[in-house]
Predict the structure of Glutamine amidotransferase domain-containing protein, mitochondrial.
Amino acid sequence: MFRTNTFIRSAIRTVKPVSTKPFLCKRLYATIEPSGDSVAFIVAGPGYLDGSDIVETVSASIHFGAKGYKVVYFTPDGNQEETVNHSTKETDVNEIRDYAVEATRVTRVAPLKLQNFRAENYKALFIPGGAAVTKIFSNFDEKKSNFSVDTAVEKVIKDCHSSKKPILAVDNAGILLAKVLGTKSGGEGVRVTVGSLDKETEELFQAVGASHAVRDTTDVVVDEDNLVYTSPAFGGKSSAFNDVHAGIGKLVKEVLANTTAMGIKKEGGGKEKELSNEQRIENWKKRVRENAEKAAEKERQKEKV
């Protein structure tokens, strides 16, 4: 029986199946965007070799959920043309899967179409790493330093940036921010981390006009001017799940530590007041400057000892 089932599964993989999209997309895609204290995630299927990294996606979901934020998942509209067997690291021949169908394996709820994203409905944007970054959200695998970002993904990043909404990215997802917000794309430049810095990574950041900070798994890099937060996650030296989870926890804590970055200001009696984008960004910059001054003062005190 085992041999028969194995043969059948193998045969199925060698025959191009009918796309599930016409039958499943309408049922699996959500149609109503929530508002309030929600954070948007961009994902595309489970698996670091052909989709979004599961550990990074789930860790961020847990950390935001623990702080009272509702996580809303978005996926591009289309089919995953390349599926990888995560045991053998080999590509499954002619196996085509739908982004929304695959993403729901991890999210457990219907994702929204990325094309319908509206920045005003969300407090922040999070992008996990994985092969989706280089195969689906961009064509980096094919074009390398001359890559371009998917039109829908690029628009979401630009909309969040122009709306002064915090953008969080882990692992290799930082290259999307580097490309979209880099000087070569008309931006003012951005500082991120994807972990280590090899020759290919260095050439990439030079090509897009962005800067890279070498950091380890549990570290966080904050670009105060762009409200961009990045952490290496699996791009760091440690691949231990607990370290990746801890690093993403630091990332979430960093952006939530300053409520003004999320557009909220606490008043007397515990009430909360929505701030304008201008107030939010100015208050955030003030806090970062104050923290930098405190850190510099500590260093000066150490030198005196």
Q: What stands out?
A: Residues 255 and 261 are 7 Å apart (CA to CA).
